[in-house]
């Protein structure tokens, strides 16, 4: 294993942060990229990365890694250092207010222009050409702030990977995944190995999160060139929601790490007898069918249904209690579906999104992700 240090743009004299990446195997085969805690206050991924590192070290020593595996055990040194009144602020950069998992630059036009004259009838060679041009486009993309340099560094490490796993978590939640529709055929293997209860699918969810910045290039180039050149979906990129923010436990993390290793093994990046593909524990549903439950008024929030429950439209999920008037407001599910996530905050502000139910019908339009 080799360790690489990537310096970010210095935000002030005497201050400079760095990103660390761990590199296993070697180029020439397929590549997997795994990063933890891009939202720096979502810590289950860091513990999973700790266990992944131990397992990958052993596999490397045994000569069982073929291709390349890149692990970034802590993907956001900026957010990790942001504290306000002793509370970590790891989701948004405090300078700009921007979400660390949004606004990744799209490279489709630059790559298409640079690569078109080199493309032909050989799909494998087309992938090689497009990845080479993509690496160059990412390296040449402007970065004038520390946050932009973080985005560019993460993209430079991941843009040419066959498999990209971005490890996050929700507040209180089931294991679930987010990915783009063209990625689902391969992502279904990961969903089975990792035990996802639901995978939420979209074709551009809005604001260009990291995972979509990695995978969208391929289906967008397919649409751009049509039948002119064969271009496969050469990257399966997925956001892995490792349950809830408090699920930072060795037992869970070690098993999650082993499940990821088993997925990589099944896909051929680790040698030896392949593991058996597990039975599915969930299914895929449209992200546009994942319905946020919002508080219509402020008050003490208490849930009457548990994460993991299957609910019907109209079922009461929670109460909001006005501590002065004693009025109780019921929060009901708008659809039949899986109650898969809820907030851990127990005082709701008006308009606050406090829970999510995954239905089977696409009902929402526009930007589909939260803030």
Structure, described:
- By secondary structure, this protein is of the alpha+beta class.
- The chain folds into two domains: 2-281, Aminopeptidase (3-Layer(aba) Sandwich), CATH 3.40.630.10; 287-358, OB fold (Dihydrolipoamide Acetyltransferase, E2P) (Beta Barrel), CATH 2.40.50.
- Helix content is 28%, strand content 27%.
- The chain has eight helices and 20 strands.
- The protein has helices at 44-61, 77-80, 108-115, 123-140, 146-158, 184-194, 210-225, 250-266, and strands at residues 2-7, 18-25, 31-36, 68-72, 83-84, 87-88, 163-170, 172-173, 176-180, 198-202, 236-244, 283-286, 290-294, 299-303, 310-311, 316-321, 328-332, 337-342, 347-348, 353-358.
- It has a nine-stranded mixed β-sheet, sandwiched between helices.
- A hairpin with a 6-residue loop joins strand 16 (316-321) and strand 17.
- Helix 1 crosses helix 8, helix 3 packs across helix 4 and helix 6 packs across helix 8.
- The longest helix is centred in the N-terminal third of the chain and has 18 residues, at 44-61.
- The radius of gyration is 21 Å and the shape is globular.
- The protein starts with a strand and ends in a 13-residue tail after the last strand.
- The mean pLDDT is 97.
């Amino acid at each position: 294993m080799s360790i690489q240090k990537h310096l970010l743009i210095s935000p002030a004299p005497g201050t400079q942060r760095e990103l660390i990446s761990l590199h296993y195997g070697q180029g020439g085969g397929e590549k997997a990229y795994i990063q933890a805690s891009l939202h720096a206050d979502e810590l289950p991924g860091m513990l999973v990365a700790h266990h992944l590192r131990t397992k990958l070290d052993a596999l490397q020593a045994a000569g069982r890694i073929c291709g390349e595996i890149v692990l970034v055990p802590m993907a956001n040194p900026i957010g990790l250092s942001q504290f306000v009144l002793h509370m970590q602020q790891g989701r948004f950069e405090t300078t700009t207010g921007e979400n660390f998992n949004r606004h990744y630059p799209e490279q489709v036009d630059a790559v298409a222009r640079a690569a078109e004259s080199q493309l032909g009838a050989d799909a494998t060679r087309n992938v090689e050409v497009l990845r080479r041009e993509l690496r160059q486009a990412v390296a040449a993309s402007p970065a004038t702030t520390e946050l932009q340099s973080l985005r560019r560094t993460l993209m430079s490490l991941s843009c040419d990977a066959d498999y990209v796993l971005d490890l996050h978590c929700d507040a209180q939640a089931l294991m679930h995944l987010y990915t783009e529709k063209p990625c689902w055929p391969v992502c279904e293997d990961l969903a089975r190995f990792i035990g996802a209860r639901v995978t939420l699918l979209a074709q551009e969810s809005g604001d260009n999160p990291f995972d979509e910045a990695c995978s969208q290039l391929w289906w967008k180039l397919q649409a751009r060139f049509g039948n002119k050149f064969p271009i496969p979906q050469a990257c399966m990129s997925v956001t892995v929601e490792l349950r809830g923010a408090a699920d930072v436990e060795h037992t869970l993390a070690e098993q999650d790490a082993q499940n990821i290793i088993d997925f990589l093994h099944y896909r051929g990046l680790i040698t030896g007898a392949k593991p058996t593909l597990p039975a599915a524990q969930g299914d895929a549903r449209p992200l546009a069918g994942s319905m946020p439950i919002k508080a219509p008024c402020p008050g003490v929030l208490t849930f009457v249904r548990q994460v993991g429950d299957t609910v019907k439209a109209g079922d009461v999920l929670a109460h909001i209690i006005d501590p002065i008037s004693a009025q109780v407001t019921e929060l009901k599910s708008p659809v039949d579906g899986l109650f898969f996530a809820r907030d851990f905050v127990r005082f709701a502000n008006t308009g606050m999104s406090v829970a999510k139910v995954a239905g089977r019908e696409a009902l929402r339009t526009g930007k589909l992700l939260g803030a």
